[in-house]
């Protein structure tokens, strides 16, 4: 078994290959480039032969040890297919720290996996709308550093350890990627070194020699909704699903289009018109009230009514396939009125064209925004301010518990052309230790696994459209995971202390000034996306 060198006096780290799917930690941004970096050293203090590239990204503390740690991330291209990540953690305190549970994902939906390994890292792949994660072997292990041994989890005062993983590489013309980890803030625009990594010093076998190690590209899904709830758009790597509320389209138990439906249908027709596809699928769905004898034909008739309207509105040749599902395929489980409202829908499903990514331009929701216009979305872009100037205060009862929190934005950065990463600290002013999950979670019917802070939204002030935190699907496609901080993987916030959190949200590239709605916190307005 190969060993991983460390810069502390502890024994060398044993390496196996282990894949974990999972929870994300918390976040801060850094774009600092480290220069004049020291070389890695063996346990006895001698050089391990691995010189860090000058483009390493530094000074990201561990979420669980914000005052006593520093991390450095380096990326190396290995041939045309592989990307090697070297993640050095330095203990800047006078006491030992443990990284137990910090370095692995808690994502679900990937089958059996081994925990306690450096699988908690992935880069955001815009071209494939995916999170590229460490290679996985059949036994559930990833091509990464193992941390099962207690000594592998412990970092002595003033010491450092390096953890490593192998992932798929982006195309050769891509020189930098943004990386999220389970243990730190996101790393935005990390340069990729063309220097050949020293796999022996990192304790990694060559991926070409690692039997049956397979790339792991987990699909990322974008989601947004109009301010009035009349439509919800969900985009994965293959389709754009426009879920139209039947509460707006139809009267109860009716299939005739109402006069109020014209605006939302015109928006949907525009999206069909602007796509290059020749075939669109339309599905009708009801909630779980009423009988199948009523719901099945009603859902089919409603799908046909929407088809008829789109045929009139779309000025090019498109064929439409319709089907009614009754209540058989709900979007959300549960019997709450909110869940049922979202399940009552007609879905217009547009296959992705060759470009195949999340929306590049904001939808035309101008009917909800008003105002004069010097852009295609129907309103003027407001003047922005730095995100770091924004804060919000929450003092109320949350899940039967009185809380007092301050939220301070620490970053809002554009990632690739169609995404944004935001980070923020939560300070606990309450009288006892608290977890902020209840204040930052999504609606109660959310199906995202774990306890993520997935209730954070970006609001376009021009259109009032809400862009929700993205979610990630494992190979089984059955479980939603959040590319955001998971509160079940971190300790609660001590009285008077602060911790940092993050969210990744798909955002059209022409949206540059936004409002932030973070769960139950009051809205923070007119923040510039850098």
Question: What's the structural blueprint in terms of helices and strands?
Answer:
Elements: E1 3-4, E2 13-14, E3 57-58, E4 69-78, E5 82-91, E6 97-98, E7 121-125, E8 130-136, H1 150-153, E9 154-155, E10 160-168, E11 176-181, E12 187-193, H2 199-202, E13 214-225, E14 231-235, E15 239-245, H3 246-249, H4 262-274, E16 279-285, H5 292-313, E17 319-324, H6 337-343, E18 345-351, H7 366-369, E19 391-397, E20 402-415, E21 419-428, H8 437-440, E22 456-459, E23 466-468, E24 471-473, E25 480-481, E26 498-506, E27 513-518, E28 524-528
Parallel strand pairs: 4-12, 16-17
Antiparallel strand pairs: 1-2, 3-4, 4-5, 5-10, 6-9, 7-8, 7-11, 8-13, 11-12, 13-14, 13-23, 13-24, 14-15, 15-18, 16-18, 19-20, 20-21, 21-26, 22-23, 22-27, 24-25, 27-28
Helix pairs in contact: 4-5
Structural class of the secondary structure composition?
mainly beta
- Beta-strand fraction estimate: 25-35%
Shape assignment: globular
How many β strands by DSSP?
28
Cα-atom radius of gyration: 24 Å
Please tell me the total number of domains. 3
Calculate the mean pLDDT score and round it. Answer: 83
Structure write-up:
The chain has 530 residues and is mainly β. The protein folds into three domains: 210 residues, no CATH class; 114 residues, 60s Ribosomal Protein L30, Chain: A (2-Layer Sandwich), CATH 3.30.1330; 147 residues, Immunoglobulin-like (Sandwich), CATH 2.60.40. The protein is 12% helix and 32% strand. It contains eight helices and 28 strands. It has a 20-stranded mixed beta sheet that branches. It has a four-stranded antiparallel beta sheet with strand order 19-20-21-26, with no helix packed on it. Strand 4 and strand 5 form a beta hairpin. Helix 4 crosses helix 5. The chain is globular and about 70 Å long. The two termini are 45 Å apart. 49% of the residues are buried. The N terminus is likely disordered. Keywords: Cell outer membrane, Membrane. One of its GO terms (cellular component) is cell outer membrane. It is found in: Cell outer membrane.
